[in-house]
Amino acid sequence: MDKIIKIGTRESELAVWQATNVKNRLQDRGFPTELVFIKSEGDTDLQTPLYEIGVQGIFTKALDIALLKGSIDIAVHSMKDVPTAMAKGIVQAAVLPRASYKDLLVPKTDTAFLDDTSVDQLIATSSIRRKAQWLNKYPGTVLENLRGNVNTRLRKVNENNWHGAIFAAAGLERIGLRPANAIELDWMLPAPAQGAIVIACRADDTFALDACAPLNDVNTAMCTKIERDFLRALMGGCATPISALAQVINNEIVFEGNILSTDGVRKVSVSKKAAVEAYETLGTDAAEELLANGGKAILHEIRNEQ
């Protein structure tokens, strides 16, 4: 195998870890590889909240362009950052086994403030989904915008007067930065495909497709498809507080999803179960049920806000 597979990645420590993970897996199978570093729009504007930027695929667009131009052969992404409709000519080549899907609260010191109603909580996050779910549980919290790579965000927690900040567990754990005092927010439903890594390539690149195919984890690919179908059916993006989680439990798929108003006051949830063989329509079926039970009104309210 003389062809070198060029792997496109963003430059953050987490993105490089993910791309290196794929690099090692391919090399273990005998494929020569090299990393190609590409800066995304999401990495250059670190001040504007993501939901205000309003760009689908802000962390993936630059890699898509490099793929289509042939500068790289595959791109490695955190799957939750990938738009539900990939760019024309680009396809999903493989989804790696999922890491933790959970969100973490990283407190500046301790979590005593959560039980003290006299304290005005200051929590930082750039995710409108996390903001809405936090406000639903802890109304009245002051939420601050938090942008930057994982290392930068952790540093900002120590530099500011916040009580804490919310992170994806997988991101911190992959690069060994999960603080000892971090607590899992078991009540917080994750973003669709959170914790999963996806490999993308050109639709006509049979070499890259064949090389990556054995890396695909069937259960993770199936569960993330359900979650992303749910998101797509709701026409949600980074400006919509939509959450979803599908899991295979005892050869059955268990799905939970919800949508909240941006202030966290209103919430509509849906739960469904299905046989593994019936997974194809589970995400869209769940979305239709949620819309019929009050989700449509919340979506309409959010769009009017925008």
Architecture overview:
This is Hydroxymethylbilane synthase. Strands 2-1-3-10-4 form a 5-stranded mixed beta sheet, sandwiched between helices. Strands 7-6-8-5-9 form a 5-stranded mixed beta sheet. Strands 11-12-13 form a 3-stranded antiparallel beta sheet. Helix 9 crosses helix 10. The radius of gyration is 19 Å and the shape is globular. It is of the alpha/beta class and 306 residues long. Helices cover 35% and strands 23% of the residues. The longest helix is centred in the C-terminal third of the chain and has 24 residues, at 282-305. The termini are far apart.
Task: Summarize this structure briefly.
It is built from ten helices and 13 strands.
Shape: globular
- Estimate the mean pLDDT confidence: 92
Into how many domains do the coordinates divide? 3
CATH topology (level 3) name of the largest domain? D-Maltodextrin-Binding Protein, domain 2
Radius of gyration: 19 Å
Widest beta sheet: strand line-up: 2-1-3-10-4
For this structure, what is the CATH class of the largest domain? Alpha Beta
> Number of DSSP helices?
10
H/E element sequence: EHEHHHEEEEHEHEHEEHHEEEH
CATH architecture of the largest domain: 3-Layer(aba) Sandwich
EC number: 2.5.1.61
Domain Porphobilinogen deaminase N-terminal: 5-207
GO molecular function: hydroxymethylbilane synthase activity
InterPro entries: HemC, Porphobilin_deaminase_cofac_BS, Porphobilin_deaminase_N, Porphobilinogen_deaminase_C, Porphobilinogen_deaminase_C_sf
